[in-house]
Specification:
Distance between the termini: 25 Å
CATH class: Alpha Beta
Mean pLDDT: 94
Number of helices: 16
CATH superfamily: Deoxyhypusine synthase
Structural class: alpha/beta
CATH architecture: 3-Layer(aba) Sandwich
Number of domains: 1
Largest sheet: 6 strands, parallel
CATH topology: Deoxyhypusine Synthase
Strand order of the largest sheet: 6-2-1-7-8-9
Radius of gyration: 21 Å
Number of strands: 9
Strand content: 5-15%
């Protein structure tokens, strides 16, 4: 794309007043410069994803639920603005505190952690969690949930989270304070990209020592995720942070093309909210344009926006904008269709394998 001309939009002299709405604010952002402009364009791209009925994946790195952001995710699920999720185990584990009524409070980051340890207070930046009343209590909940479940056959993390959502919907004190419950009710698959790197898996340890075996089928879920993209006319990702959740969603393109011989080409749209540098070679900071070389995104020149800022700042603005400007969509009920998607992808691959021609024709 050629940007070497002087035909851009005029920069406004911004005016704010008591009637400025979220729509106005996003328009203002988009008309300015720097990361304010990128944030405005990201919010508008999110709206475009919804308008074009793209299948939208939300990836959530780090620990966003301890600051209450599970409530935003819950609302987006219920409006049909998130169709599947890839997240860390921390976000699933800490989200359940709210459903159970376990205490999570604002604290401070300028503290002596030796003192906090003695007082049995666990800190995530400036958020405090009680060791006994919250963490130990949550551990007992998770251990009880899976004492006699998922031990008889292999499972995926989507099944694991769906079961958590079902149990919390029936037994939690505040089920309306859990995005997992909404994901269960709306058939939104929630994948935990690194289950063993979390308290969720740690709590299975007490049962494993009693000879109960948990067989996570991680290859199955990689194929399920690719099958979701394969069965989507348009596919999109909203990435909060980077890390493994980001790569898990983006590797669907290389899975379809590089491994299975498809010509899918990757995601149609991606929004990335990150504070990581691209020049260190890490995945969290890798540009979306770089992803084109891997087949992770359809176009290196359009359909992508990266905002270099804190996701706790950008995400509520983007969410508020689409909630204000977009009509709710009918749930896609992807979780109920995972077996069908998987079997379809399997059939096409095996049929072509028999022909000694591993080439899956692109459907969209």
């Amino acid at each position: 794309m050629d940007h070497h001309h002087f035909r851009g939009k005029d920069i406004p002299h911004i005016k704010l007043d008591s009637k400025t709405s979220i729509e106005d604010l996003v328009d203002i952002f988009a008309s300015t410069g720097y990361n304010g402009r990128q944030l405005g364009e990201a919010a508008k791209l999110y709206a475009k994803m919804i308008e074009e009925d793209a299948v939208i994946c939300l990836t959530v790195a780090g620990a966003m639920t301890p600051v209450g952001f599970g409530g935003i995710i819950k609302t987006l699920i219920e409006k049909g603005f998130v169709d599947w999720i890839v997240t860390t185990g921390a976000n699933v584990y800490h989200e359940d505190h709210f459903a159970r009524g376990f205490p999570v409070k604002q604290g401070h980051f300028e503290v002596d952690d030796m003192i906090l340890y003695e007082k049995e207070i666990v800190r995530i930046r400036d958020v405090y969690i009680k060791f006994i009343e919250t963490l130990a209590a949550e551990d007992k909940v998770v251990q009880q949930m899976f004492r006699d479940k998922l031990t008889d056959k292999s499972f995926t993390t989507a099944e694991f989270c769906n079961m958590m959502g079902k149990i919390s919907s029936e037994r939690a004190k505040y089920p309306d304070k859990s995005f997992l419950v909404s994901a269960y009710k709306y058939d939104v698959p929630v994948y935990v990209s690194t289950l063993k790197d979390s308290s969720l898996a740690m709590n299975l340890g007490v049962h494993r020592l009693q000879n109960k075996v948990y067989n996570l089928d991680f290859v199955r879920e990689i194929l399920e995720q690719a099958a979701i993209v394969y069965n989507s006319k348009k596919s999109a990702i909203v990435e909060l942070g980077g890390g493994v959740p980001k790569n898990t969603a983006q590797q669907t393109g290389p899975m379809l093309d590089q491994i299975l011989g498809n010509d899918d080409g990757g995601q149609d749209y991606i929004i990335q909210i990150t504070d990581a540098r691209p020049d260190t070679g890490g995945l969290s900071g890798a540009t979306l344009q770089e992803g084109k070389s891997w087949g992770k995104v359809q176009d290196a020149h359009s359909g992508t926006v990266t905002v270099y800022t804190d996701a706790t700042i950008a995400f509520p603005i983007m969410a508020a904008y689409v909630l204000a400007t977009q009509k709710p969509r009918k749930p896609k009920r992807i979780y109920k269709n995972l077996d069908k998607y998987y079997l379809e992808l399997q059939k096409v691959y095996l049929d072509n394998l028999k022909k000694d021609k591993v080439k899956i024709k692109r459907k969209h």
